[in-house]
Design goal:
about 110 residues, about 0% strand
């Protein structure tokens, strides 16, 4: 039997940060796929299959992103302005990517 390694302690809030990052990227990607591929195919070529497939997936990812935002709000004690910015980012193309990039940049900056 292999010896198990001791668990390394994770910084507080790291699971919420990871969850938000994953759902921000997934939700942003599904939104862009809908806007740039599925909807034009439906409108220009009458092919609605991608909208029918990606629409519910995007909807579920959107709900999971909102849940991740509120979990992060509780973990990091975000002010309401920050919460509203995170929620607004989900309805702007490339918004979740910009938010995630800023959060990652903020996380690696040294504390004053």
């Amino acid at each position: 039997m292999a010896a198990s390694l001791p668990a390394t302690p994770r910084p507080p809030g790291s699971s919420e940060r990871s969850l938000l990052r994953v759902f921000a990227i997934a939700e942003g990607t599904s939104f862009l796929l809908l806007l740039l591929i599925a909807v034009p195919l439906k409108r220009l070529a009458g092919q609605a299959i991608l909208v029918q497939l990606l629409g519910p997936i995007h909807g579920a990812l959107f709900v999971l992103y909102v849940v991740a935002v509120f979990l992060s709000t509780a973990a990091f004690r975000w002010p309401w302005k920050r919460v509203l910015m995170a929620l607004a980012a989900s309805v702007v193309p490339f918004g979740p990517f910009i938010l995630e990039w800023k959060d990652r940049k903020r996380a690696v900056e040294p504390l004053p």
